[in-house]
Amino acid sequence: MGTESLLVFIIIGAIAGWLAGLMVKGFGLGLVGNIAVGIVGAFIAGWLFPRLGFAIGGGILAAIIHATIGAVILLVLIKLVKQA
């Protein structure tokens, strides 16, 4: 993985984590936390969506949407575990 790819990966993760933090009320984790949530969310969505037969498409916008949905799933799960 080249430097440019890694930078794009981090930027997409940050955007997705930030968007997910906005969608799941009261659950922002700061810049580093948002990047981590976005990246983990992208992996979750990448694993889950093909099993459900769900596809968004290609490109950066699709990657952001994909990672955001996965990050929202992750944040909701974290929120449920913290409440228990």
Distinctive features:
mainly alpha, 3 helices, 84 residues
Describe the structure.
- The chain has 84 residues and is mainly α.
- The chain has one domain (13-83).
- Helix content is 81%, strand content 0%.
- It is built from three helices and no strands.
- α1 (3-23) packs across α3.
- The longest helix has 24 residues, at 60-83.
Low-confidence stretches: none
Q: Distance between the terminal alpha carbons, to the nearest Å?
A: 39 Å
Q: State the total count of DSSP E strands.
A: 0
Radius of gyration, taken over Cα atoms and rounded to an integer in Å: 13 Å
Biggest sheet overview: none
Mean pLDDT reading: 84
Order of helices and strands: HHH
Please tally the helical runs, counting DSSP H or I stretches of 4 or more residues. Answer: 3
Shape: globular
How large a portion of the residues is in β-strands, by DSSP E? under 5%
Specify the helix fraction band. Answer: over 70%
User: Helix/strand-derived class?
Assistant: mainly alpha
Number of domains: 1
Topology:
Elements: H1 3-23, H2 30-52, H3 60-83
Helix pairs in contact: 1-2, 1-3, 2-3
Family: Belongs to the UPF0410 family.
Membrane topology: Multi-pass membrane protein
Transmembrane segments: 6-24, 31-49, 55-78
